[in-house]
Each structure stands twice: as structure tokens, then as C-alpha cells.
Amino acid sequence: MRRICYVNFNRFFASLYSGSMKSNTYAPFAKPMYIMTKPAGSLCNLACNYCYYTEKSKLYKQNPKHIMSDELLEKFIKEYIECQTTPQIMFTWHGGETLMRPLDFYKKVVKLQQQYGRGRQIENSIQTNGTLLTDEWCRFFHDQNWLVGLSIDGPQEFHDEYRRSRSGKPSFKQVMKGIQLLNKHQVEWNAMAVVNDFNGDYPLDFYHFFKEINCHYIQFTPIVERIYKHPDGRILASPSEGTKAELADFSVTPEQWGNFLCTIFDEWVRQDVGEYFIQIFDATLANWMGVMSSLCSMSETCGHAGVMEFNGDVYSCDHFVFPEYKLGNIYEKTLLEMMYSERQLKFGEAKKSTLPTQCRECEFNFACHGECPKNRFCKTSSGESGLNYLCKGYYQFYKHVAPYMDFMKEELKNERPPANVMEWIRQGGADLEL
Description:
The protein is 38% helix and 13% strand. The protein has 434 residues and is α/β, with parallel strands linked by helices. The longest helix has 23 residues, at 391-413. It is globular, with a radius of gyration of 21 Å. The protein starts with 5 loop residues before the first helix and ends in an 8-residue tail after the last helix.
């Protein structure tokens, strides 16, 4: 997301749902300049069929090692800290597979952050597939209070369908061992689960699995990719390639996505509010409240969250690592120059300015904002370009949850816990039935 900065919203909504914190006392995402960092580039020990990042190695054939130098690491940390205007600074380490770098690399990260932080509150989050976790890694994450985002696509049958090693071996059992180690060392972690064509038809099996393994923070990401062969060997389409590309067969359908969200929401709102935190539900409530969403895809504009590759190249967004979206290199331009350039500002504003009329006039535009621009490759009923591929699914979801979001919003406005929605439903919920 993407994404991993959900840690702030974890803590925000955990208090908010229970009523132990007023809705206006904490700014969980005050729009800092945010750059996700790829210390090992696209290197990974797995070869997930739907991965949008491993093929980025083809953009860097001249540098096959794909690892960040110590010099670049120090330059980035110093400059990144100096750029921030908020009291909290969030570093996000992503891949590829981040644990392809040795633990000593991340110990150096902590020392450099202490050296240049000057007492600022610094938080770290790291994304991993979990297969390389050890006791030593988990002790480090616990001792340094790092949040771990762990990729797992539900029960074994679903997970192993697409998430396999480079030799084709399943990875589920290794990931579960990793989870056991995280729990053993009391590491804070959340699940990053991809919803695809295979598991999208089994929402409750999916959701119940996470409850069974006692995972209380879950991020569901719909996979939507298109195929377009490039001369350098890449096969995934850039958003700028318009209608030339064909939908990848592992992509979730709009109907699957809508049904998936509605089915899980029906159970969550009836018995799990304030106990299990599902990012898209939290982000939806935030938008209903008029609070900045935790999901950039659900925000009115974007562009404040870039990504830096192992060699210092900076791109507009994690999902826009294509040559035409490269902003420059940290050795040639400052992070501020790149992230506040006219080009990047236009990129962020385009999320709003390029919405088709159908979206602008939609009753749920305030909650959706057209979702991610990467997925806007369809046409509206009137033939206008720019409609999100998942529009039908999102509309189904927002229509379905609207009465419950309205209730929770009113509870918050009156400084009561939105978790009261569960009792409201038990008492008839304005004669609504789930």
C-alpha cells in the first residue's frame, strides 16, 4: 500500500471504537512527506504469480546486486528526517523481500535514526513474506518496537495457490512458523492479504482464518493487474498504457470484490467491531467522518507517498514504478525537490481532476474518490474514460454499509463508541437485517 503505515490507524481506531479517545484528539496521518524504501529492491525468495514488483529488476539489469549501499542508507535517513515537519516520523521498509538484507543492515538503520533523529519520535515498519523470520529477527523487532506487515493470503489452500517459492514449493507452513515466532516474541504485526480470483469467492473462510490465528489487524488488498509485454521483458502494464493491455487472469472481479467485502462486513459489524480492525472498514468510517483516510487509494488526492529504489531512484508511487513516473535520483535531487516538484503535485492532483463525470456525480464519491488511479482503465456507461475497474464492487459495498456507517458516525459525533453499532443491530437496527 501499501499500506504499512496502518500502524497509526491501528492505535487510533482501537481507542476510537471503544470510546476511550475522542475523535479529534489524534491526527493519525497528518500528511507528512512519506517515502517507502526498498533496501533490497525487488529481490525476493518467493515468486508469487501476481507480484507486481519482482519484475522491476528488469529496470536495473545494469546493477544485478540490487542492494542499498551504506552510503545511500545514511544519506536517505538524514535527508528524510530533515524533510519532515510532523513530530512523528515513519520509516517503511518494503520489497521484494526485506529480510534478504542481513539483520546488521537494520541495526545500522536504528543507529543512524538515533544519530540524526535529535529526539524526534521515529517509528519503523517492515513488510515481509515471513518465511525468513527467526528468533533473532523477532527479538530485534520487539526490542526496537517495529511493526511487521506480514503477507499471508488466508488458509493454506488459498495461500499456496499463488504464493510459492522460485522452485514452485508452497510457502504457507514457513509463513505460519514465522507468525509463531512473532507471537512468541510479542512483536506487533498485521496481516497483508491479497484478494484474487481464487480466494475471492470464500470471504468467510478467509476472515475466519485470521480470527483463528488471533490476527486482529488485517489489510485486504484486491489484486488488479494487466498484461502488456515491454521490450525489456516486463509484462505488467503501466497505467499510461491505456486500453492496450489485457486483464491478468489472477485479478479479482468487481463482483467478487463487492461480495467479499459485504460478506465479511456483515459478520464484523455484528460481532467484531472494536476487536478486529480491517483497514478498508476503518478507512471507510474515516471518510464517513470527514477524517483523512488511512488508505491513499481512498483519499481525494495522492502524491505524498513516493517510493525509493535500492539505488536512490524515486518514483511517484509504489504502484507506479515505471520509467515514465520516475522523479529523479537522491544523488541528483533532494527528496523535497522530487516530492514537491510540479510533476509530482500534478500526479497527486490528477487523482481528483481526472475523475469521470459518473464518479463526480456518484453519491459515494466522498468515500471512494475513484480508488487508485492505477485501476482506472475502464469506461463509464456514457463512454467516458477513467472509470475504476472495481467500481461496481465498491458501489455495492458502500451502498450496503451506509446505514451502519451513518450510525457509527453519529456515535462518534456524540462522543460515544461506534462499537455500539453491535447492540443497535441486536435491538433491531432500524429494522435492518444482515
